[in-house]
# Entry
Amino acid sequence: MDVFFLLVFLAFLFVMSIGGVLYWAVMSGQFEDSDENASVILQDEDAACVRSDGKRSRAAPDVPSAIS
# Structure
C-alpha cells in the first residue's frame, strides 16, 4: 500500500511539472503566431536575393560560391 501512495504522489508531481512546462510555453509566446511559419514557404524567394544596396543578385548572399 505504501508503494501505491508513492506512485500517486509521483504521478501528481509528473502532471504538475507537465502543466508547468505547458503554462511556461503559453506565457512565453511559443504559440503566438502559428500561421506565419506555414505561410513562409509560399512567399517569393526573389526577396531573399535582394542585396542591402537594393540590387538583385543571382545567388542568395549566404550561399558560398563554388568558384574561388
Observations:
- The helical segments are 2-27, 34-40.
- Residues 2 and 12 are 15 Å apart (CA to CA).
- The chain has two helices and no strands.
- The chain has a mean pLDDT of 78.
